[in-house]
Structures are given as structure tokens and as C-alpha cells.
Amino acid sequence: MTKYLLIAEHQVPKGKRALLLFVHQLHLCAGVIEHRYDGRLVRRLPEHPQPTHLVSTICQLMSGQSLDGDLHVVLDKGAYWPDAFPVLLNGKSNYSHV
Questions:
Q1: Which top-rank group of organisms is this from (predicted)?
Q2: pTM higher than 0.85
Q3: Three-class SS of residue 20?
């Protein structure tokens, strides 16, 4: 079963992506942080952030991963994890940062 793990941006495992939640015009929105193997952290934010993109962004991140994989979540300043979502665990990456 998927676990939702709250991590800091610098804890995104190399070669992996994480859900980035941020506030835009007082609305909770979603983007993606990718930690590339060359060490760069790349933020992918929608051109026109909308709160309606939140669930589709989560689904995009979960597609292609195993059902028991973890979804890393980064909360930007002012962002929050909605109460209606599954439990968000405090977590640290279990992946090597090689």
C-alpha cells in the first residue's frame, strides 16, 4: 500500500520525483520536484496553477510506480496536506543519495 511521506525538498531521492504542494492566490496547488542524478532539483510548476490539478498531479506521480511504493510530499511555505487525504507520515528518504 502506498505511504505518503512528508520530506524536505533536499531529501527528494536522486532520480526520483516528489509531489510539491504550494499556495497560489490563496489556493492549494500542486507541482513536481525532480531530483536529477546530476544533483539538480528541478521544480515543475504549472503555467496556470489551479487547485483542480491537485489530484491529477498525484495520479501522474503514482502512475508507473508499484502499488506499495512511497509518494514523497514536499510542502512549500503556507501549503498543507488536506484532511480528506490519506495519512501523511513524517518520513526521511530510504534511498541512497549516491
A1: Bacteria
A2: yes
A3: strand
